[in-house]
Specification:
The chain is α+β, with helices and mostly antiparallel strands. Among the domains are: 108 residues, Nucleotidyltransferase, domain 5; 93 residues; 39 residues, no CATH class. The protein has a 6-stranded mixed β-sheet with strand order 3-2-1-4-5-6. Strands 7-10 form a two-stranded antiparallel ribbon. The protein has a two-stranded antiparallel sheet with strand order 8-9. Strand 8 and strand 9 form a beta hairpin. Helix 1 crosses helix 2, helix 4 runs antiparallel to helix 6 and helix 4 packs across helix 8. The longest helix is centred in the middle third of the chain and has 33 residues. It is extended and about 85 Å long.
Length: 377
């Protein structure tokens, strides 16, 4: 089949630290060959040459994918990068091995369902390497400073200066007479903190020189609250801002804890409104004009329209559920004079159930969803 097929091939690569598995297939899903190689740029180029001209290759953004993407690009392949979170479902399969993973990556690519990540160019990757390394050093320095404060707390020594690691604070620490092994630990931590501070200052200089002619870096610093450090991190993580068609994807990139709204609208058209998305049945969701011959209704006012409350209409905040049913029961009983005693209140919850000395003498007719308390005949 390899000799007979001369079309464009799809290649899935399951990349590991020492060895990798490649699965080549046709555009309609027929497998051509499976190969196992030892990781090296020359071996990868030799194997990908069997896929013909300009094959479509997909690999997951796992440990050390930089060299593989660069080698495949140099070999003339169209490289795609699979996002690890998008292919996380692979771990739930009953049969999971390297060949299956590579084949599934190729299938997702040829069907157009691959959760794809952006392959940053080498210059952006180099900038990310510096900014991320600086963040790690800052976290290590903060950990060392926390341990210094912990040593002082263990010995019951109150801190009498604002900044222990400033000029006056360093003099104060030098004058302390600590017992062993705390004195040795304190000296070691202060030495490590000094080394880390020197490395962080050196990285600041290198990053500033690298971004000296970067337009986005200087434009970001004009925004309030953004200095050189944060501007360098934003420029490194976003890269080319023109790759985002709209502002929202760029904002979500900087907030991984805020994913896109989840929509489950099987049989519930209003789910788009709850998620803050436009309803396909309402066009762009901003309120389409009412057709001729019909009075405008709530659906014509947009997804966040709430009809005005009529005069005399009661404002109800208890909407369904056992607790809401009990609140309505207690309200009606109090109006009818059938509740005695003082209501029991929980902080922040209002009246939730009868308190001590309170009795419900009569109940409403209908389904009894709330059965606590005492009722008389």
């Amino acid at each position: 089949m390899t000799e007979a097929y001369d079309g464009r091939q799809i290649v899935g690569v399951d990349l590991h630290r020492r060895r990798s598995v490649l699965v080549r297939m046709t555009e309609d899903g027929r497998r051509l060959e499976t190969a196992r190689i030892t990781n090296s740029a020359a071996e990868l180029r030799r194997e990908i040459a069997k896929a013909g001209e300009c094959p479509k290759v997909v690999l997951e953004a796992t440990y050390g994918w930089y060299w593989a993407a660069d080698a495949l690009t140099a070999a003339g392949a169209e490289v795609h990068l699979a996002h690890p979170l998008g292919v996380k479902a692979f771990s739930y399969r009953r049969v999971k091995n390297d060949e299956k993973d590579a084949g599934d990556l190729a299938d997702l690519l040829r069907m157009g369902r691959l959760p794809e990540a952006w392959i940053a160019p080498p210059e952006v990757r180099e900038l990310r390497e510096l900014t991320r390394y600086r963040i790690k050093l800052v976290r290590l320095r903060a950990s060392g400073k926390d341990q210094v404060h912990a040593v002082l707390a263990k010995l019951g020594i109150p801190v009498t200066c604002t900044d222990v690691f400033g000029a006056w604070g360093s003099t104060w620490l030098d004058e302390l007479r600590l017992p062993q092994p705390y004195a040795g630990k304190m000296a070691s931590l202060r030495q490590l903190i000094g080394w880390l501070s020197a490395e962080i200052s050196l990285l600041d200089t290198v990053i500033a020189d690298l971004l000296e002619h970067h337009q986005a870096y200087h434009a970001l610093q004009r925004l309030p609250g953004i200095g050189p450090v944060l501007a360098a991190v934003i420029a490194a993580e976003i890269g080319d801002i023109t790759r985002f068609p709209q502002p929202r994807p760029a904002v979500l990139l900087g907030r991984p804890d805020t994913p896109a709204p989840r929509v489950r609208s099987q049989g519930r058209p209003g789910a788009h409104h709850q998620a803050g998305l436009p309803d396909p049945a309402l066009g762009d969701g901003r309120g389409d004009p009412a057709p001729a011959g019909r009075q405008p209704g709530p659906r014509d006012q947009g997804p966040h329209h709430r009809p005005p409350r009529q005069p005399g209409q009661e404002h109800r905040q208890d909407r369904g559920g056992p607790q809401a049913a009990h609140l309505r029961l207690l309200r009606d009983a109090r109006r009818a004079g059938q509740v005695t005693g003082r209501p029991h209140r929980h902080p922040g919850r209002g009246v939730s159930r009868p308190g001590h000395g309170q009795r419900v003498i009569a109940r409403r007719s209908g389904p009894r969803r709330w059965r606590r308390g005492r009722a008389s005949d």
